[in-house]
């Protein structure tokens, strides 16, 4: 979580903000990265957003019970 938002919620908001109607947000980022590289601009932020959208969400962690204590 970042602040009061979960990463999954932030990921959905970024994808929604980048998506044009009927377009994949990752493909749009790839086009923007290619365009910026042709112009000689920095692409670190765009590439970071792309990696963030491509990364799988966190797996749910199993809570450990009290019955599994070592003696």
In short:
By secondary structure, this protein is an all-alpha fold.
Mean pLDDT: 79
Distance between the termini: 35 Å
- Indicate the structural class: mainly alpha
Largest sheet: none
Rg computed from alpha carbons, rounded to a whole number of angstroms: 18 Å
Approximate helicity band:
40-55%
Shape: elongated
Secondary structure: number of strands = 0
Question: How many helices does DSSP assign?
Answer: 3
SSE layout:
Blueprint: H1 7-18, H2 25-39, H3 44-54
Structure description:
The protein is an all-alpha fold and 71 residues long. It has a domain at 24-56. The chain contains three helices and no strands. Helix 1 (7-18) packs across helix 2 and helix 2 (25-39) packs antiparallel against helix 3. The protein is elongated and about 60 Å long. The model has no long low-confidence stretch (mean pLDDT 79).
Based on the model shown, name its key terms.
71 residues; mainly alpha; 0% strand
